[in-house]
Every structure is written in structure tokens, then in C-alpha cells.
Amino acid sequence: MTRILIQRILGAIWLCDGLLQLKPQMFTNGFITANISSNLPGQPLWLQHLLEWEIFWGSHAEWPFNLIITLTQISIGVMLLSNRYLKTALTLSIVWALLVWLFGEALGNLAFGQWSLKDGAPGAALLYALLGVALWPSADAPIQWNRFAKPLLLTLSLAGWLETAWQSWYYPFATTGFSTVPSHLFALGVLGALAALIWPRLRRLGAAGLIVLSIWAWITMQQAGQFWLPYATDFNSGALWALLALALYGCSSTKKALHITGSGEHSSQSA
């Protein structure tokens, strides 16, 4: 699995997100009400103030507000797909994703305390940013898992398992749009994938487990983000979890990626 392929999949997702913003409903005040105002209840006071500021300005300039979002996300997608201005594209992807995570997803409701890995926590936008960091060009490794992204992925997976295990104790079955899923089985599956990720020899097994769990949750629980609805803005986090796990499955470790040439120069081996 090469870095360029993961990069282009991420670019395609960014492009689709930008195209979703072109729906007529997005250029109305309903977009602010449906996607931002609904995040206000229960948030810490400082976050409420930030969201209220965004709601004020966004509701007074619906067209420019949504047009900026649309053009930014389409631009990121096109640059990542074309592999041109790569560092600019990844920088914009990381910064924009974090802004969306703060202002659009209210930090994935983590500060609220009512979050669920199955329903989309910690927020799709945070995973966009994580992928942008992992894809940053480097001579040391095709994909930057060993330095930053892999520890963060493990942390998010562990937090998600703890949350899922707690829910499975109090709510043995999670009712979704398509089916009733045994929560304790999902918790055990996340734990198994997490355990495999910790040991390098089982990395691919753990990544494969995360891919299966992510796609299962994405289809049965998140319903692909219900992107067909008027105010849906993305595909939800399940697709991004699967892409993260896919990158982890195919990447090479830093040591294996380095080769010493006869002249003493380093060349990187693709994953």
C-alpha cells in the first residue's frame, strides 16, 4: 500500500466533502442550525462562546460562509489527487481539519462527555488531520506512523475501546439504523484489534481487524454519514478509521524503509 494511494483516497474524500457543500440547502441558514447550533447544548462555556460567535457570523453571510468551505475543501482534494503542491495541500488539510473539528464538530463532543466511537467520535475532522500528519513527506519512512500517527491512533483506539466497553456494560445492544448490534462483541473486537496493533509482528492483523470494524460501524451504525440528506457534510468517521487502518496495514517501518546506497545516500522504499 503506497503513500500516494492513501494520499489520493484522502484527496477524493476531501473533494466529495466539498461537493456535498454545493447542495442548495447548504447556502441557507438551515445549514448553521442543523450542523452548528445543534452542538451548543451541554458544551463547556468557552466552547459555547466560540460556537455562538461562528453562528452569528455564519447566519449573516450564508453564501460567503459556505462558499469558503466549499472552495477550500475542493482545493485540498484537487491538490492531493494531482500530487502537486503537496506540502501546501497537507498543511491546509491539517489546519482546515482542525478548524472544522473545533467549529463544525465541537471537538467531536469530547468536551461534552457524551461521545461514542460507534457513532463517529472523536470526530471525522480529527482523523483527517491525523492522516495529513501521517502522509507528510519524509526521507525516513513512506508513512509517518512510528513518530506520531501510530501512537495517536493507538490512544484513540484505546479511548474508543474504554467507551465501548462501558456502554456494553449498561447497554448490551446498540440499536442502529439497520440492525441491533451486540455492543459487547464490538468492544471485544476493538480490544482484539488494539492488542494486535501493540505488537509489531501482529501489526497487519490488528490493522485488518480495525478495517473490518470500521467498515462494519460505518455501514450499520453511521449509515455512511447519511450523505444523501440535505445537510450532511461528510461520510462520518468510519470511512476515515478504515483509511487509517489501511495505511497502517500497508506501511513499512522506519528501519525497513531506509537503505544505505553505495555512495552513502539514503533512499526510501515504498510501502
From TrEMBL:
Keywords: Membrane, Transmembrane, Transmembrane helix
Residues passing through the membrane, by range: 94-115, 121-139, 151-169, 181-198, 205-221, 227-249
Domain of life: Bacteria
Protein name: Peptidase S54 rhomboid domain-containing protein
Organism: Sulfobacillus thermotolerans
